[in-house]
Amino acid sequence: MVSPPLIYVLLMLAFPMGAIILFSFWTQEFMTLDTTFTLANYREIWEKPIFAALLQRSLFVSGCVTLVTVILAFPVAYFVSFHVAPERKSLWLFLITIPFWTSYLIRVFLWKVILGYNGVVNTGLIKIGLIDEPLTFILYNVNAVIITLAHAFAPFAILPIFVALEKIDRSLLEASQDLGESKFTTFFRVTLPLAMPGVVAAVLIVFIPTIGDYVTPELMGGAGGKLVANMIQTQFLALNNAPLGAALAIVAMICVTAISLLFVFLNRRWLRGRS
Amino acid sequence: MTLRIYAIAYLVFLYAPIILLPLFAFNDATIIAFPLSGFTTEWFQQLMTTQALHRAAQNSLFIAVLTALLSTILGVCAARAGAMYDFPLKRGILGLVMIPLVLPEIIVAVSLLVVAVQIFDVGLSNWTVIAAHVLICTPFSIAILNGAFQNLDPAMEEAAMDLGESRWSAFRLVTLPLVMPGIIASMLIAFTISLDEFIIAFFLTGANPTMPVYIWGLLRFPASLPVVMALGTILVALSIALLTCAELLRRRGMARVGLKDKGGFI
Amino acid sequence: MTGLIQLNGVNKYYGDYHALRDIDLTINEGEFFSLLGPSGCGKTTLLRTIAGFEGVSGGVVMIGGRDMAGVPANQRPTNMVFQSYAIFPHLTVAENVAFGLRKRPDIDKSTAVDAALDMVGLSGFGHRVAHALSGGQRQRVALARALILKPQVLLLDEPLSALDKKMREQMQVELMRLQRHIGITFILVTHDQEEALVMSDRIAVMFDGKIGQMDDPETLYRRPKTRLVAEFIGKMNFLDAMVKDADITVDVQGLGTCVIAPEQAPSGVTLGAGAVGIRPETLAILFDGETTDRETIQGTVAEVVYYGDMTYYDVTIAGIATPLNIAMKNLIGRPVLDVGDATTVVWDARSLVLLPAAA
Ligand SMILES: Nc1ncnc2c1ncn2[C@@H]1O[C@H](COP(=O)(O)OP(=O)(O)OP(=O)(O)O)[C@@H](O)[C@H]1O
Ligand SMILES: [Mg+2]
After folding, report:
1. Residues with CB under 5 A from ligand 2 (ion)
2. What is the mean pLDDT of residues A207-212?
3. Residue A21 domain-assigned?
4. How far is CA A188 from CA A183, A241, C58, C340, in A?
5. What are C295's strand-pairing partners?
6. Domain range holding A113?
7. Residue C44 Cα, ligand 1 centroid: separation in angstroms?
8. Of A221, B230, C50, C334, whose CA is between 20 and 30 Å from C139?
9. pLDDT-based confidence at B265, cuts 50/70/90?
10. CA dihedral for A126, A131, A134, A135, sign (positive or negative)
11. What gap in Å lies between CA C197 and CA C203, rounded to an integer?
C-alpha cells in the first residue's frame, strides 16, 4: 500500500538528489558539459568571497525569520489552544491558514505596496504626524525580506505549536498549581517544556524552506538583499552554469541541515539538563 | 484579554496584503499607491481580453487538476497504509514521504531540472511541472488524509468482509464513503497549492507558462500592475471559496461519523 | 463424533513471534464455547484464524468438515461481533443490519431486518443514525448484523468489555438466552473468568499461545490441571505436598496425611513432591457455638477483608508458609473477627486438588 508514494518519492526526490550531487562535481562551459570529476565548483565557492557573503546573509535572514516567526506565532497558538472555546478553534485555525494558501507572488508584491516609499505604512505614519519623511529602512533591504518571509511562513509556525499545546493534558497544569506553582511559573515549568516538540518542529519547518526562497529577496531585497537562492537561480537559468548552481545548492543544504541538527541536539540537551 | 487583542492584531497582519488587493483592483489609477482615486472595472475587462493570460490559466488548471488527482491517490495509499497496517521501517518510510514538506523548494526545482533536461533530455513541459507539484503536494494530501483514516476503525473493513464483501467492495462500501470528505479536501488543497506555486514552476515550466509564471512576467511592467491586482483578486476569491468548501466538507465528514471536531486540516 | 469446528496443530507466527502454538480444538454444534486467557495470550488471533482474517502458519482449520485453507473470510460460514463493534457510522441502524444482504437477493430485506432487530430488542430503532447509539445498543446492532446471515458459528471478540458492569451482566444473560434460542455455535473471547464461567458450555484457557486446559466450567474450576489455570480462575491456596503411594495418600504441609480420590488428581499422580490446591470457600472458620465432624486445625487471623456479603480471612497456621485464604459468608450471628484472634479452621480432604509441584 505504501509503495506507490514511496516509489514516487524515491524516483522524484532521491534520484534527482543523487543526480544533482553528481552534477556538482562536473563543469560546464557554455553548452558543453564536462563530465570529468572535479572539485572546481566547490573550490570556486570556497574562494570567491561573494558566495560566502551570500550564504552568510541567507543563513542570517533565515535565522531572523525563524526567530521572529516563532516568537510572534507562539502567543497566537497559545491563545487558540488555551483561550478559544473548543467549537471555535477550527474557525480560528481556518482564518490563520487562509492567507497562506492565496497567491504567494501577489502577496509578496503587496508587501512592497505596504512598505514602499509611498506605501501604506509611510503615508499612514506621515498622516498621523509620527514621521515627516517616509521611512526607507523598510524596503529594498534585508529588513523587508525578513518581514515578508515572516508573514509568509506564519501558519507553518503556528500549526505545529498549536498541535503540541493541544496535546498537553490540562490536568498537568492543575497538578502544577496544586503543587504550589503560580500560573506564571507553571507556564515555564510545565507548559513550555511540553510544547517544545512543537516549537522545534516550527523552527525546522520555517528555517529550512526559507533558504530556498528567491521570490521575496528578488522583489523586496533590492541590491543588497539578494540571497543564495537568487544566486542558484541565476547560475541555472541566466548564466547556464548548472554545475556551479548545483554545488551551491548542496552547500546551502548542508549548512541548513547542519544548523538544524545542531539546534535539535542542543534542544535535547537543554530539555534533558533541566529534568 | 491582552492575548486576544494580540491574536486579533496578528490576524490583521496576516490579512493586510489580501485586504489591499481588491482596493487596488477597482482603483482607477495605473500606479499602485495611496491615495485611491476612483472606482473602475477596467482592469477586470482587460483580463477578459488577454489571450496569453487565458492560455496560462488553462495550463495552470490542467496542471492543478492532475496534481490534485495524483497526489490524492498517493496520499490515500500512504495514509491507509499508515493507519491500518504495520510493516517494517514504517516510521522511516512514512517520514521519508513527508520530506518534500520541509525541503527548500529551490532544491526540488533544480534537481528535477537537472534530471529532466540534462539526464533524460525530455524537455520541459506541463508534465515536468506536474511531476514536481505532485511531489510537494503529496505530503499535504497525506496530512489531511491521515486525519480521515486515523478516525477509521480497521475492524470496519473486516466487518464488511465478514459480511460477505470482497476486499475491494469492502473498501468501496465502507472506507471510501467515510474518507470521501478527506479525499475531496485533499484534492482541493493540492489544487490550490499547485495553482499558486511559482518557485518550482518557474524552473520547470515549458514553452507555455503557468499562471504564476505569467504574473511574474507582468510584475516587471508597472503598467500592467493594476491588471495583476485584478487577477489576484479573482485568484484569492477562488482560493478562499475552494478552501471554505474543503473546510466545510471536512467538518461534514467529522459530523457524519459522530466525531468531535479537534481542529483544522493538517 | 467430529465437531463443527476442528483445529489440528494450528500454529501462527507474526515474524519471529509465535502467537499460536500447536492448537488442537474441537467445538461442537450448538455449543457456547469460550476462549479465556490473559491479555496478549492469543485469543483474538485464534478467533481471527477461525474467521479467516489471519492465515495459519501451520495446521488445519476445518469448519463443518471442510478444510478452510484458502477460503477467505467472506466465504466462511462464520460471522463476527467485533470488539469495537465496527458499526458503520455512515449508515443507519437498519442499513447496518442489512449490510450483509447485498448479495443475498433470496432474503427479503425488510422482514429479515425487522426480525433481526426484534431478536436483539431494538424494534423501531431502524432509522436511527448508528453513531448516536449507546454502547449497549451498538452491541445489539452488531449482533443483529452478524446473525442476519444465519451463520453456523458466531464469533464474539470481547463483546462485553466496553460496557459498564450492570449492562455487562444484563447482556451476559441476553446472549445466553439468544444462543439457546437460535441454537448455533457461539465462540466467545474474554479475559473475564467470571463471564466465561457464567456463560459457557465449555472453556479453553489459553496462556502464551497454548491451550492450558479445556473443560466445562465446573471441572475447570474444581479440577484445574495446572497452577496457572488454578490461579487464573478464582482464588486458590497452594500447599506443598508429598504423594506417598499410588492410592494417592498425600502428606500435606501443615494439614497432615490424607487420602484423595483419583478425580482429585486431574493432571495424574506422580509419586514424590507435589502440591495441593484448596479454594478459599471450601475452607471454613468455626465460629463459637458451631460444630463440625470434619478435620480442624488451629490458627491465628492475620488479615481481614470485609466485602459486605463475604469476609475474606488470611489465617496463619503453624507449619504452613503462607497464611490460608478463607472465604466466609456473613450469616446471621457470625461476628467479623479481628486480626490476632485465635481461630479453628475447618477443612476437608474432598476439596483438595492435586497439582504438580511448584516450578
Ligand atoms: N498483526 C500482528 N503483528 C504482530 N504481532 C501481533 C499481531 N497481532 C497480534 N500480535 C501479537 O500476538 C499476541 C497475541 O495477540 P492477541 O491479539 O491474539 O491477544 P489477545 O489474547 O486477544 O489479547 P487481548 O486480551 O489484549 O485482546 C500479542 O502479543 C500481540 O502483540
Ligand atoms: Mg484480543
Report:
1. C 44
2. 87
3. no
4. 9, 51, 57, 53
5. C347
6. 52-274
7. 7
8. C50
9. very low
10. negative
11. 8
Residues 6+ apart with CB under 8 A from C269: C243, C246, C248, C262, C354
Closest CA to A205 of A270, A153, A254, A249: A153
For residues A68 and A238, is the Cβ–Cβ distance under 8 A?
A: no
The model's confidence at residue C221, banded by pLDDT at 50, 70 and 90, is very high
Q: Is A79 exposed, middle or buried (0-12, 13-18, 19+ CB in 10 A)?
A: buried
Touching partners of B (3+ C-beta pairs < 8 Å): A, C
Question: How many separate domains does chain B show?
Answer: 1
Cell for C118? Answer: 426484534
Q: Which of C156, C116, C87, B161 is nearest to C107 (CA)?
A: C116
Q: What is the pTM of this model?
A: 0.78
C-alpha cell of residue C9: 496443530
Which residues of chain A does B219 touch, with a Cβ-Cβ cutoff of 8 Å? 105, 109, 219
Closest by CA to B75, choosing from B134, B120, B35, is B134
Starting at the earlier edge strand, list the strands of the sheet with C202-207: C78-81, C153-157, C185-190, C32-36, C202-207, C210-215
- The three-state secondary structure class of C355 is strand
Q: Are C312 and C305 in contact (CB under 8 A)?
A: yes
Decide if B14 contacts A152 (C-beta within 8 A).
no
Choose among B15, B107, B261: nearest Cβ to A99: B15
Rounded CA Rg of chain B: 22
Segment C286-337, tens digit of pLDDT = 988 888 888 899 999 999 999 999 999 999 998 888 999 999 999 888 889 9
Amino acid identity, position C328: M
Chain B, nearest residue to C74 by Cα: B164
In chain C, list all ranges with CATH 2.40.50.140.
Answer: 280-347
Contact B172/C at CB under 8 A: no
CB C44 within 8 A of CB C189: yes
What CATH number does residue A91 fall under?
1.10.3720.10
Give the pLDDT mean for C52-63.
90
A60, part of any domain: yes
Sequence-distant (≥ 6) Cβ neighbours of residue B255 within 8 angstroms: B261
Order of strands across the sheet that contains C353-356: C256-259, C249-252, C237-243, C272-278, C353-356
The set of cell numbers assigned to A151 is 508573514
Kindly state whether residue B20 falls inside one of the protein's structural domains. no
CATH code of the domain in which B81 resides = 1.10.3720.10
* A35 occurs within a structural domain: no
Sequence-ordered list of residues with C-beta below 8 angstroms from that of B240, at least 6 positions apart, any chain: A98, A102
The number of distinct structural domains making up chain A is: 1
Residues 6+ apart with CB under 8 A from A121: A114, A115, A135, A138
Instruction: Tell whether B221 lies on the interface with A, counting CB pairs under 8 A.
Output: no
CA distances from A252 to A58, A59, C13 (A): 9, 9, 48
Ligand nearest to the CA of C42: 1
**Which of B87, B158, B162 is the mutation pick for testing C, counting most C CBs within 10 A?**
B162
Furthest C-alpha separation in chain C: 75
- Residue B83 sits at the vertex; the CA angle it makes with B71 and C188, to the nearest 5 degrees, is 150
CB neighbours of residue C66 within 10 Å: 11
Nine cell digits for residue C123? 424494534
Ligand 1 centre to CA of C178 (Å) is 29
CB atoms within 10 A of CB B216: 20
Q: Report the topology of domain C280-347.
A: OB fold (Dihydrolipoamide Acetyltransferase, E2P) (2.40.50)
Asked if residue A240 is part of any domain, the answer here is: yes
Task: Tell me how long chain B is.
Answer: 266
Q: Dihedral through CA A144, CA A149, CA A155, CA A158, nearest 10?
A: -80
- The CATH class given to the C3-222 domain equals alpha beta
Under DSSP, is residue A275 helix (H, G, I), strand (E, B) or coil? coil
Residue recorded with cell 484569492: B236
